[in-house]
Amino acid sequence: MKIITQTPRILIREFHTSEEHLLVNLYEDNRVTVFVPKRTVAETKKQFAYALIAYYESPGLGRWGIFDPKDGAFMGVCILKPADSDPTRIELGYVFAPAYWGKGLATELAIALVKYGFEEQGLTEICACTDAENTASQNVLLKAGLKRDGNIFWHGSDLYFFRIEKKSIPN
């Protein structure tokens, strides 16, 4: 399992084939799926299988697990990959289990993924989208340096669109 990046409080790494249940259990919690597309268990399993394949087909970008570096506890899932709605754009996204909400972890994660994307993957732009009512995620994206850039129709919904360009990061 390849480690993508790490901060003092989060470890972002590829999923192991035996960890499908972590993603399934996360998405079965209705609190978690308020602002993300609802998926059946079969759809979540398919998404997990695609994530494993992408580790080989698109190394360095993908869907990864978020874990506690101290005890290995599963905290959530994140993406930095071509957007399903527009594969020409690289989308940042994340979902944390409720036990990890309100601790600044999403901001820490978003900052780490932006840095990783620009410094390790040579990306020139990173995008994200949120539901209009998801002010917590909007604040996270703003703290990570992304700026609101209107609305976009992604994931079957009209969403707030955010982006950051590498050239906007001070050296």
Describe the structure using short key phrases.
single chain, 171 residues, alpha+beta, Aminopeptidase, five-stranded antiparallel beta sheet, three-stranded antiparallel beta sheet, 4 helices, 30% helix, 30% strand
Description:
The chain has 171 residues and is of the alpha+beta class. The protein has a single domain (3-168), classed as Aminopeptidase (3-Layer(aba) Sandwich). 30% of the residues lie in helices and 30% in strands. The protein is built from four helices and eight strands. The chain has helices at residues 20-28, 41-57, 105-120, 135-143; strands at 3-6, 11-13, 62-67, 74-82, 90-96, 125-130, 147-154, 157-165. A five-stranded antiparallel β-sheet has the order 1-2-3-4-5, sandwiched between helices. A hairpin with a 2-residue loop joins strand 7 (147-154) and strand 8. Helix 1 (20-28) crosses helix 2 (41-57) and helix 3 (105-120) crosses helix 4. It is globular, with a radius of gyration of 15 Å. The mean pLDDT is 93.
